[in-house]
Amino acid sequence: MIDSVKNTAKSMRDSLQQGIYVVINPFVRFLLRLGFTPNIITFIGFLGNVAAALVIGWGAYSSQGGTLDWKCLTWGGGLIIGFSLFDMLDGQAARLGGLASTFGAFFDSVLDRYCEFVTVGAVTYMFLCQGWNIAALLTFLALMGSLLVSYARARGEGLGVVCKIGFMQRPERVVLTALSLLASGICGQAGVTSFDPLWIVAVAMGVMALFTNLTAIARIQYMKKHLH
Predict the structure, then answer these.
(1) Which of 25, 30, 115, 217 has the most CB atoms at less than 10 Å from its CB?
(2) Distance between CA atoms of 39 and 90, rounded to whole angstroms?
(3) Cα 130 from chain centre
(4) How many CB atoms lie within 10 A of CB 1?
């Protein structure tokens, strides 16, 4: 039963990915004609995520002790979604342009980690500025789990074992972070008073903290089994 659910989820994810490729391929070919290399596209995506982190951080810094600047959360979430698409564009550019390289794969993975550091780090800073210390701790645990999930896979592959099991891989983490920021920002700008919109981000970070660390633990157990 569990294997059937996993296979169905994988099939749906693969189908969605192929559908996205159909949409983005013309744009990728356009970038290639302009002379953009996969590494340049990767770096643009990184700069966009840095911009998102700065927007979120500025919104938190400028409203310490007061009402959060909800527009900054909306813009931050939008920038994360928009520029994280470059993570898909660079790989497709490498395939369509015949420009795949070992260094390109390494460069992409390293900048992916930087993107998570700056964006989730900015969310941690935002919670600290607002005095939400427990939420800040959960966000830190989410960041820690995210990095361990990626490290466990990379280390496993270095030892000759492919380890992709578990939930909350990078696409899910990016979507959850970005959508929670967008929803929180939109609710805050709309003047929702029935609850504090910042709770949306706090709950999302709690979910991410739980499932990223469970995935990291599952990968440790998986590696133990296969390396033995």
Answers:
(1) 115
(2) 7
(3) 23
(4) 5
Type of residue numbered 130: Q
Q: Find tokens 């967008």 and name the residue.
A: 182
Question: In tens digits, what is the pLDDT along the chain, a chain of 228 residues?
Answer: 545 545 555 565 566 566 666 777 787 888 888 888 888 889 999 999 999 999 999 999 888 767 788 999 999 999 999 898 877 788 788 888 888 888 988 998 899 999 999 999 999 999 999 999 999 999 999 999 999 998 888 888 888 888 888 778 888 899 999 999 999 999 999 988 888 999 999 999 999 999 999 999 999 999 888 887
Q: Retrieve residue 177's tokens.
A: 């972070």
> CB neighbours (10 Å) of residue 214?
15
Q: What are phi and psi of 211, to 5 degrees?
A: -75, -30
| The model's pTM | 0.86
CB 45 within 8 A of CB 111: yes
> Given the structure tokens 């820690």, which residue do they identify?
144
Q: State the first-to-last Cα distance of the chain, in angstroms, to the nearest integer.
A: 27
Alpha-carbon distance values, 137 to 102, 123, 128, 144 (Å): 36, 11, 9, 10
Tokens of 42: 């990767």
Whole-number CA gyration radius for the chain: 19
What would the two tokens of residue 181 be?
């920021």
Cα–Cα distance measured from residue 170 to residue 109, given in angstroms and rounded to the nearest whole number = 11
Residue carrying the six token digits 């659910």: 5
CA dist 65 and 108 (Å) reads 38
In which element (H, E) is residue 118 found? helix 102-129
Q: How far apart are CA 198 and CA 181, in angstroms?
A: 8
